[in-house]
Amino acid sequence: FFFGFDNYYTASLISIPPEKRARMLDVLNRLVRRERVTFEEYRSLNGLLEHILPIVDTDRTSFYHLYGGIYREGLVYGPQVVIEPTPERLEQWTGWRDRLLHSAGCLVCDAEACGAEVQPEFDTDKLYWHTDAGLEGARVPGLGGYCHGYFFSYALTERDRRLHITALEFLAACLGAMLFGRLSEGSDVVGRVDAQVVDRILNNNSAKSEMMQFIHLQMQSLPELQLPRSVTWEHVYGEANVMADAPSRGEFEAMNMLAGHLNIRLRRLDIPPAFFELLERVHDFYDRLHAAE
Questions:
Q1: Residue 203 pLDDT more than 70?
Q2: What is the mean pLDDT of the chain?
Q3: Which candidate, 24, 26, 28, 92, places its Cα nearest to that of 58?
Q4: Is pLDDT at 197 greater than 90 in this prediction?
Q5: β-strands 105-107, 13-15: how paired?
Q6: Nearest CA to 167 among 31, 274, 289?
Q7: What pLDDT digit, counting tens, does each position of 92-129 carry?
Q8: Angle at Cα 286 formed by Cα 283 and Cα 290, nearest 5°?
Q9: Cα separation of 247 and 266, whole Å?
Q10: Nearest partner of 12 among 106, 118, 104, 124, judged by Cα
Q11: Which of 247, 225, 231 is nearest to 174 (CA)?
Q12: What is the DSSP string of 49-106?
């Protein structure tokens, strides 16, 4: 289904390759300007439009008037016959040009749902979520996470910033589990973090520092991770974690711009009271650790 697209599986995104998009826009612009387009070029254009239909915000009515007598003329007069515009065709060509100018892709789950002609829901076999912590160099240091269009952002307090970045990455994973864990209770989970030590601890139960051991035990008790499901953790580099990295640094303009290009409707989730209670327990443990030194 995704053959011929650019796939960003670590971010659950799929996009139209730039060169393919440019080819379609070139032909559509010429059609709208009533310039010469042959049946051979036009047939190729329609094939590309059919292919990208599942990831563009439209339905099959957008193909009305694109075929009709055009294909009969092509069969009779050959591939070099010139396409003649009609008011109805011009309207559809303009619509397709505008869609391509304002959309470059979408969520993988939405593309799958559109291709199957069902309403996109969280009914896939696996649920992917991404989390991150931003500290040094961040516009607004915080914790961020992203999952199939849903996201969270928590701005760190001065007290929070005492904690080591690895502890903050762990807390971001905890918050991700709290918020995303019940989006689809029947799905297995792949949690993605860009701190290697975090996924190693979570997969191997091998925390060494007392603080990491404490947070790990807190995380294991989360009800969202006690559901009958498989939970695995993966490390991803920051470049592949952009939709979690942006909200962890307060870079909402960049996040909204990327979401707009990829036709994603973002939905922000509120921070639950249970997370603030967890955070307070972590701070209490931090204070006890340092008081004993």
A1: yes
A2: 81
A3: 92
A4: no
A5: antiparallel
A6: 289
A7: 899 989 888 876 555 555 544 444 333 334 445 677 88
A8: 145
A9: 12
A10: 106
A11: 225
A12: HHHHGGGSS--GGGGTTTSTHHHHHHHHH-TTPBPPP-HHHHHHHHHHHHHHHH--EE
* 57 and 103 Cβ atoms separated by less than 8 Å: yes
Residue 273's Cα: distance from chain center in Å?
26
Copy the structure tokens of residue 90.
Answer: 């011009």
Counting every residue written for the chain, the total comes to 293
Q: Is the pTM of this model over 0.90?
A: no
Q: Are 236 and 194 in contact (CB under 8 A)?
A: yes
Residue 278 has a pLDDT of 94
| DSSP 3-state of 187 | coil
What three-state secondary structure class fits 185? Answer: coil
The span from the CA of 220 to the CA of 136, in Å, is: 28
